[in-house]
Design a protein that fits this description.
The chain has one domain: Ribonuclease H-like superfamily/Ribonuclease H (Nucleotidyltransferase, domain 5, 2-Layer Sandwich). Helix 5 packs parallel to helix 7. The protein is an alpha/beta fold. Strands 1, 2, 3, 4, 5 and 6 form a six-stranded mixed sheet that branches. The chain is globular and about 45 Å long.
Length: 178
Amino acid sequence: MVKLDRLLVIDIEATCWKKVPPPEQENEIIEIGIAPIDLTTRTIEDKVSILVKPQCSTVSEFCTELTTLTQEQIDTGISFADACLHLRKKYLSEKRVWASYGDYDRRMFAKQCQARGLHYPFGVRHLNVKTLFAIAKSLPREVGMARALEMLDLPLEGTHHRGHDDAWNIARILMKLL
C-alpha cells in the first residue's frame, strides 16, 4: 500500500566527464539528495545529502567543477547498496511516491541497481516534475530546473548540481505546483 503522507524529492549527482568516460569507467551515482515534503502540512521537511562511493569510476576534474564534489569527499561516502538500504529503511522509499526533475534519476537508479544486482529502492510511483511543470504552465516543451525557478520568481537556493540543494529547489517548484 502506498503511503501518501510524504513525497520524497530526490536528485542525484553522478560521475561525469567532459566527453566520454575513460576506459574502465562509467557513470555512477555519487550523491543522493533528498528533500521530503510533508503532504499534511505542505512543508519541505529537510534537505539531506548522502555521499556514495563509486565502485568503477573516479571523480573527474570536470565533475568537480560541475558539482563541487571532490574525490576526497566521495571517498568518505557509503556504498550504493547501503545508500539504497538507507532509503528503504529511513524514508520508506518503496512505499512512498518519489519525484525528480526529469527521468534521469529514475533511469540511473534502475540501471545501477540492475548492474549491481541490487533491489531497486523505490516503488513504481515516480513523479516527473519537469514534465508536470511543462504541462501545468502550458509550455511547448520542458525546461530546466533553473529556468522553472526563474519562471516562478524563485531564486535558486544553494549550489546548482549538488544533490541536496537541487532536491530542495525541485521541492520548492513542486510546492508551487501543488
